[in-house]
Every structure is written in structure tokens, then in C-alpha cells.
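During the reporting period the student researcher (J.K.) took over the structure-prediction task from the postdoctoral fellow and processed the backlog of single-chain submissions. One of the processed entries is reproduced below for the supervisory committee.
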Amino acid sequence: MSPDDGMTVPDHCVQALDRARRHSIDTTGALAVAHTRDGGTDLYLLIYPDRLELASTGGLMRTGAGREQVPLTAIDDVTARDRLLRSTVEITTGGNTLTFRADRRTAAYLTALIRDRMTAAPDHTALLHHLTELHTAGILTDDEYAAKRAALLGP
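J.K. obtained the following C-alpha cells:
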């Protein structure tokens, strides 16, 4: 978990990463992890280069551990709002708003990181690797490979 923009990772995110791993939540590739409790349930917000994931471990008041993905392209807005004791990260997508509680510093960090990822160029590394494998296996011709590679890399 290391953002590439020079922002300092809040202690909360480091602790949330350790906690998520103890709950057997896969955090591979996450740029940031945050944790909150809601109705006896541990909730995690994981920020990836191309998406957000909300993970729940289930709990006494709520049922159903699970994971929900939100592509960054589906996010309309993200805002950190200061409340009386804590802050919230408000993520608007498709007319719905997801609210995630955090301390002020963490909310500001998460909001800045999500905004940064929303405006970043897409990472096509995995697709390029897959194209190379298809080409090496003989599934794609040289011309098909070159055309698809050029389309991914753009002008």
C-alpha cells in the first residue's frame, strides 16, 4: 500500500490494512485501506487504481459478509465532510451516495486519493500482458497483436 503521489499515508490506513489482513480480506494491489464499524460490522474501503471496493465481514446486527466493487469511471463525485466528532467520505455514483466514516485526516486523504485516481490515465499493464500471452501462444497474429497493442497505448 503505497500511493505514488507523495501523500503521507495516515496511521489509520496502515492499521486498517493490518486489520483487513487479519480478517482474511484480500488487499493485494490496494493503494489504501480504511476501516469503520457500523452496527457491529467491520466495513473496509479499499482503493485500487481502477476501482473502489467495499468489504464487510458480516456481524451481529447485519448479515452477509461480502464485497462490492465500484469502478472509478462510475463515480460522479467524492467529498470529505467534517462532522461533529468525525468526518465522512461521501462517494456519489449514479445518483446514490455512499457514506464512509473516518477521522478528519483519513477522510481528507481518501478523498484526495480517489479524486487523483479518477483523473489518472488508465493502467493497461494487465491487458498488455494478456495480449502478449495470446500472441506468444499463436492465438493472435502479428498484425492483430500490433493493432490491439496500439489501440491500448493510444496516440
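The committee noted the following: The longest helix spans residues 104-119.
J.K. will present the remaining backlog at the next meeting.
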